[in-house]
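Annex B. Sample input.
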Amino acid sequence: MVDGLIIRSSSIHAAGCYTTRAIKKGARVVEYDGPRFTKDEADDRYQDRDITYLFSCGTDGMVIDGFGTAMFINHSCDPNCQTEDVDGRIFVMAIRDIEAGSELTYEYNLYDSDDADQDCYCGAEKCRGTMFSEAEVKRRARKARAAAKAKAS
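Annex B, continued. Sample output.
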């Protein structure tokens, strides 16, 4: 993993993760780690919380309750990192060379949320305006069309 990651104030959202050293494209930056439990357990545990650091992992419906440096990596529609699931372990990888002093970001691609929206404030030139995945945006649009059609009937 990369040395020299720090947490400090971010213009994207409260705190962010920055690198004090240059990072090469393809480098494994940090692991998203923490306690693991099922999505249902997470839903029960965090039903009254506005902010969580949950990350879906593996294929068995488990989530990681983020604890550590990686939980401070913010969403961006023009990210410099992406996540990779390796046997249920989540690693943040650099998708381009990253200069020292840069904030680390990746696309959250949220889905299966009870929230009506997940607005994005990343400030990217081509910001999508949401942290939901493209598939989730399409799913919600289909659901809204079906509801409107049912109401019109």
